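FIELD: query
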Amino acid sequence: MTVSSARVAVYRSAPPVIAPRSGVPHWLPRLAAWLAIFCTEWIGWGVAQAHGIAGDDQAFLLRATGAHIGPYIYLGAKHMVTGYDHLLFLAGVIFFLYRLKDVAVYVTLFAIGHSTTLLLGVLGGWHVDAYLVDAVIGLSVVYKAFENIGGFAHLGFQPNTKAAVLFFGFFHGLGLSTKLQDLALSQDGLITNMVSFNIGVEIGQLLALGLILIAFNMWRRTGGFLRHAFAGNVVLMIAGFVLAGFQLTGYFVS
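FIELD: result
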């Protein structure tokens, strides 16, 4: 897609500062309120169903012994494609990335981060509280949206964007590992199964990333992308706060 250089915002050392052109749009508070209600119902439903992998997938993992490469690849891909917390963070990461080269760099850093802690967490038996890890994952969405609107520039400093994506990638992988450890997986074939699951996660991430990029490209063609970028990131921030709030609530009441 060809975009005029005046409208292209590509990460170098810091994200662009995006803000409403003439104050806060009159429709933004109403949008934020509706989004908060929607996120509360949507995420609340997901938490009410189960914290982690459930249903037939959980039943399979509980009874499976030995190596099952295909099923674990499928489960890894499914978990990533349906993982709204991971998808929201990815959306924030690529929000202002126009070149595929830049997308590849940031997504690779994220993949390195979550692959490392997913494998080490399960194989090394790291025991961390799933609610607290998922709360940090929710806050990672808040962080990325705040960075996108230039919030850190107003505070007088700018974090390293690549290091931040890698850092939060560690927590996203740790979140996956805690869900798997809750199931007390069989040690028979565990290494093969975890590598397969991680491959599936990467496949799912690529599929989800492709859909997100298509959606962003369609939005950018409308000509209103930069005008609504601020509002879009406010939406991401609200979703991240709701995610973190639900997980912290679960931690204190469980």
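FIELD: remark
Residues 54-253 form one domain.
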